Protein: 8-oxo-dGTP diphosphatase
Organism: Psychrosphaera haliotis
Amino acid sequence: MTIVNGKTKTEQKVIRVAAAIIQQGDRFLLSKRLDHLHQGGKWEFPGGKIESTESVATALVRELQEELGITATHQSDFHELVFDYPEKRVQLYFQLVTEFNGEPEGKEGQAVQWFSKRELLTLPFPDANKPVLAMLETQL
């Protein structure tokens, strides 16, 4: 049994997160986590927490509008995983977004940039993203 912050792993609250792998041709859109956030200063697939009343798809559309000012118009399931950080457990639902309306910009002050797959694979990401990066290397 693993105990973290006085709780067993099974007692820790699971934070559900919708994340977008936004692909346009051979480029991927990433945002950089603000320095003061958990895993700050690292690049990430945009998205955020899923509210208790939301589906993954609905949460992702909302988060992309709030964070980037875009509306996803075509998204599909890509991968789901649970990852344990020492201080929390996250359940990530990755969606592949291949079509959207609007021009992406960092609405919360974060950097937003397009990268080739080769560039993307060299960037620092939160640890929970590493299994998906390995999948991207071979699948997309």
User: Anything to note?
Assistant: Residues 11-139 form a domain with the Nucleoside Triphosphate Pyrophosphohydrolase fold (CATH 3.90.79.10). Residues 1-7 have pLDDT under 50 and may be disordered. Residues 30 and 45 are 5 Å apart (CA to CA). Strands lie at 3-4, 7-8, 14-24, 27-32, 43-44, 47-49, 71-84, 89-101, 112-116.
